[in-house]
Specification:
Two copies of one chain form a homodimer.
Chain A: E1 8-14, H1 18-30, E2 33-39, H2 43-51, E3 57-58, H3 62-66, E4 71-74, H4 81-88, E5 97-100, H5 106-118, E6 122-128, E7 149-152, H6 160-172, E8 176-179, H7 182-208, H8 223-229, H9 236-245, H10 247-269, H11 273-290
Parallel strand pairs in A: 1-2, 1-4, 2-3, 4-5, 5-6, 7-8
Antiparallel strand pairs in A: 6-7
Helix pairs in contact in A: 4-5, 7-10
């Protein structure tokens, strides 16, 4: 996609925070869209996004905000996606495309696809693997998606042309687009993102509640602990929602993790130096192989 | 301690890698010692440390390297400490002090203290909470210990004057010295350092061995996973030794962690949003409270 090639005339971004706002900025900068309309339940965010030039105009209500769009992008917390989709679909043009940025896909697709099907509108489930620890329109920037992956999880009923249009948008924003089965997406994300978050939250609670000594032992933490637990500072509401929406895959990954932890524990208890060294060496090999393969980000990716 | 005030005339550093080399450089820069002798089983490291000016001279053998020292500092892997202490103690001056930098203390003290007691030499167990992911004399730098904590874990038989002399050295190197019970040290370190390392190693093995799909799902990892698992790139031999030397405390912390993980798992299985949000919020509060309280380091701290 050459810079400046228009993909669609008008898009509407519902949810003008870091994720939606950054996509709007990237697409405008790339010349991929002519006009961006914004909508947000948070009126302050909406007016801020307008003032910052993230969106060109704002709708009077959510229905009119989406009425003229070629593509409507729902950049909202996973728990709101299906409900907001139900709100916007009746107001959309029949030839328009609905897409989203949710970090869990099986539950979201199950919620949105039948409703979109009822009104004959193409729905393309998407998930950009990027973010920062910040949120809101002030945090948005055009480069957020550059060099990152965006996963699209079409089903058998997703029209190929709609997939290609949404993929083009993400490529214009600088991302590499990967098509993936929706179930696989949720398991991969559970493994590389949701599981680490669950572990980090449990670790911090475990250590901070260690009360053999009358002081907060977290005060002794050095850089290793701080790096390791940074993701435990993530938004509790967002992670509550992800944990609930991707329950099956997360429980599966937690059980797999527990198996490995039990193996390690048994080797420590048995003072089996050979197995311990092998366990650590295998882990180091796997970790070193991905070192530096992606820049830092901490959103629900 | 003013800059330039000499604490002792001569020290000998056994093990001239990152930890021992950096301490030598810091003490020379601060004018806290007049002469540094070095020893290392690795002759290449030893000559490198000499060439870099980390040590002023090198011993012909380990016995003569320590013979004239006021303080002998063992900066070696935890598993070697007791054995090397047995080697050096007979050659040391009776009024000299032996100290070490091992990141596990109960097992090390149990190994060294009786031997030091037999020859009437004061032994001061120490552990500087700092390091980098690098190693060897080339990685040593004088600022490593600045603004960091050094924990000294004396027993009832450690002479107060010897504790104060070793504490002064660490203060000259820029550290804050904390005196702590040896058992407490090992439990705190198990909680804030050893447990996170065990978890990171188990997580990477767990995720990299997830084989439902015919590809390495680690390739999808974004920054959050990379930050979280950086410590799984640590030295397998060093961590094998720490896991074995601090077995009791690490197993205790692993069990406490498993309890919290089980609670979280039950809340996810029950789709208990209120408890999940509370769990994540409590963790975020604890983690945010220590944010930025210490700079990055990744050694066995």
């Amino acid at each position: 996609m050459r810079m400046g090639a228009v993909v669609v005339e008008r898009i509407t971004v519902v949810g003008v925070g870091l994720i939606g706002g950054s996509l709007a900025l990237a697409l405008k900068q790339a010349g991929a869209v002519r006009e961006v309309t914004g909508w947000d339940q948070n009126r302050e965010h909406l007016h801020c996004a307008h003032a910052l030039g993230i969106v060109d105009n704002i709708g009077a209500d959510i229905g009119s905000a989406v009425a003229d769009a070629d593509i409507v992008i729902l950049a909202l917390p996973v728990r709101c996606l299906a409900q907001v989709a139900e709100q916007v679909l009746p107001s959309m043009r029949p030839d328009a495309i609905l897409t989203d940025t949710g970090s869990v896909k099986e539950a979201v697709v199950a919620g949105i696809e039948p409703v979109a099907g009822n009104v004959g509108i193409a729905y393309v489930p998407g998930h950009p693997i990027s973010g920062t620890e910040k949120s809101g329109p002030q945090a948005a920037f055009a480069e957020l998606y550059r060099g990152k992956r965006c996963i699209i999880t079409p089903t058998s009923s997703t029209p190929a042309a709609a997939i290609e249009t949404v993929a083009q948008l993400w490529r214009c924003a600088g991302s590499e687009v990967v098509l993936m089965d929706v179930r696989k997406h949720d398991r991969i994300l559970a493994a590389i993102s949701h599981l680490p978050h669950m572990i980090a939250y449990a670790l911090v609670n475990s250590v901070s509640n260690y009360d053999e000594y009358e002081e907060n032992i977290l005060e002794y933490s050095a850089g290793g602990f701080l790096d390791f637990t940074r993701i435990a500072s993530s938004d509790p509401v967002m992670w509550r929602d992800i944990a609930m929406e991707n329950r099956g895959a997360i429980l599966e990954m937690l059980e797999q993790f527990e198996t490995y932890l039990a193996e390690l524990k048994a080797d420590i208890a048995a003072l089996d130096g050979k197995r311990l060294e092998g366990f650590f060496r295998q882990s180091k090999l796997s970790r070193d192989a991905i070192a530096g393969s992606a820049p830092t980000c901490t959103k629900g990716d």
